Structure to design on (299 residues):
């Protein structure tokens, strides 16, 4: 029997499908380079970080230059640890208005006691309208370039922080941001701790076999094996230092399916909450507590 958490995910997927109409994921092309190729090709220049503010960036990618940004939302100083957070899909992380979809605000900025520098990365295609975003997801290569650009930015921020501070750095994110977190862990591993939430290493499964797959175009669904071969990265993720990871999954998540994504975290203790994808995303307290608890394990 479907519970309320699963039902919310299913309803959200159906509503999103009506909004997307014929603009499904990968409707134009399912061909493109691997994540390894995308991430190895990424280039960005990040300024020296010594205070609060928004920094607009241009990231060089295999699909061309992409506009992105990050915000130092709270700067305690170089004597404090730093959290680099990445938002979820179709969020606007710099919009602090009451009704904005913004997990960064809800998790961190309502908690003045979180004693760390707080940085949030804004992915490409997340500074405009939903219509603009839908135009960009027609090709799998653009979608992968978007994610890879955020990985590139996260690594550049870490290098910049290391120039001024020897304090721990935590990389975290939710949903889309969780995939960025795990990809950074797999390809760089330069942070002291990774806190992926509602993500794993089988990204392809989300678009081919989960309830979210109703948003994948018919063309994409005809090439399920190819999509999974491009988007899944569990093979390289297995080589990451498992002791650095403290993941959170939702037991009833119909998008990031617990039993599927839990396989990504062999040998890792997973925090599991009895929520679905939508209800977990809205549970600010559970998400905040998990990040805070994870943070306490830093030496």
């Amino acid at each position: 029997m479907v519970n309320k958490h699963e039902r919310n995910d299913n309803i959200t997927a159906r509503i999103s499908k009506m909004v997307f109409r014929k603009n499904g994921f990968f409707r134009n092309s399912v061909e493109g380079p691997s994540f390894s190729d995308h991430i190895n090709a990424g280039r960005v220049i990040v300024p020296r970080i010594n205070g609060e503010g928004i920094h607009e960036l241009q990231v060089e990618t295999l699909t061309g230059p992409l506009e992105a940004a990050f915000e130092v939302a709270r700067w305690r100083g170089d004597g404090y640890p730093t959290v680099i957070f990445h938002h979820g899909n179709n969020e606007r992380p710099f919009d602090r208005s009451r009704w904005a979809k913004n997990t960064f605000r809800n998790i961190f900025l309502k908690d003045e006691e979180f004693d760390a520098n707080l940085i949030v990365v804004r992915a490409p295609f997340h500074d405009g309208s939903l219509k603009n975003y839908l135009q960009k997801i027609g090709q799998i290569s653009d979608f992968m370039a978007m994610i890879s650009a955020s990985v590139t930015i996260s690594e550049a921020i870490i290098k910049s922080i290391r120039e001024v501070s020897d304090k721990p750095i935590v990389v975290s994110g939710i949903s889309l941001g969780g995939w960025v977190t795990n990809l950074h862990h797999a390809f760089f591993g330069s942070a002291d701790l990774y806190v992926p939430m509602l993500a794993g290493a089988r990204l392809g499964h989300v678009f081919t076999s989960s309830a979210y797959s109703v948003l994948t175009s018919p063309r994409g669904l005809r090439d399920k094996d190819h999509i999974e071969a491009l988007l899944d990265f569990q093979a390289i993720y297995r080589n990451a230092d498992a002791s650095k990871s403290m993941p959170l999954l939702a037991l009833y998540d119909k998008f990031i399916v617990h039993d599927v994504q839990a396989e990504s975290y062999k040998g890792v203790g997973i925090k599991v909450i009895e929520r679905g994808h939508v209800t977990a995303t809205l549970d600010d307290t559970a998400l905040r507590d998990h990040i805070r608890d994870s943070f306490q394990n830093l030496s």
